[in-house]
Amino acid sequence: MVDCEGADWMVFEQLDLERYRPGMIKIEVGALPAAEIGQVVVKLKTAGYQVGFQAEDIWAFA
What we know:
single chain, alpha+beta, 2 helices, 3 strands
């Protein structure tokens, strides 16, 4: 778990999802701008994750 206090996209974009393949990812997106939320979703779906939203969080499962 990493709590980035609003810098979630800046940290998440550096994660190599092909090399490190977590089975579950939860990202707090409540403080992110819409464009960054979109980038999170695109990165997860491109890597083959199933993506869902709950409140201010994105959940992804490999």
